[in-house]
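not sure who needs this but someone in the group chat was asking about ATPase from Kibdelosporangium aridum so here u go. i didnt clean anything up, its just raw.
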Amino acid sequence: MFDSVDEVAQRLAGAGYLTSTAIATTVFLADRLGKPLLVEGPAGVGKTELARAVATATGSELVRLQCYEGIDEARALYEWNHAKQLLRITAGRDEGWHEARADIFTEEFLLPRPLLTAIRNPSPTVLLIDETDKADVEMEGLLLEVLGDFQVTVPELGTITATRKPFVVLTSNATRELSEALKRRCLFLHIDFPEAVRELEIVRMQVPEISEVLAASLVRVIGALRALELRKSPSIAETIDWARTLLALGADHLDESVVHTTLGVVLKYEADRKRAVTELKVFG
């Protein structure tokens, strides 16, 4: 998909994602080596957006598996359309079981979920396995099996092997430690909140109408908020939302009134808001 590290940076920028040399290099190597990319970091630093940007930059289809506690093989890989199978059995009730079984375990009744969808897709695909750390350890075993050979065995249909391997991105907020086996399978990339200069560039790219002065003030306040011990630090997306909010209100600078009325855009817990008001003089 990419011929050089510089091309990665340029094409991701064209997709609206400003990247560092470290990020561009790791994406390039994951593509060139054909290895999954494990991206770890705090919530809201752009891990999921990186996968979306890679898909956009390469014209690939994005297939997303959102992980959560209790997710199982049926939700991640495939399951059978039991209601449709039951209707088929009922319609052919005069048939024997062997005939009916041959009819209902076919492609017509298969419901592919994200992992199988990505493996079977003949077109360029970015497979995003989002918030992997929220899934159970058992799900990691399934991921190891699938990502190892990029093939899936459906007992009734046989083994399905990828004709075109997807570009795989796994994200983790590091709420729990992932297994060593899964980490060995992947290239690792840690993304943290960007430095002020880079975040200012991101804001100016995503909200080009904002003035340099207002954008700089906003980024400075966001940095101060992240320095506090908050329950949830503002994400990059929330920084952009705040910039758009200020524009919508016609604000040309940050003052106490504007900040107090719009703080809910970036702080989503009352305790965080109170701490910000108390500890940051900019909030009066």
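also The mean pLDDT is 91. if thats useful
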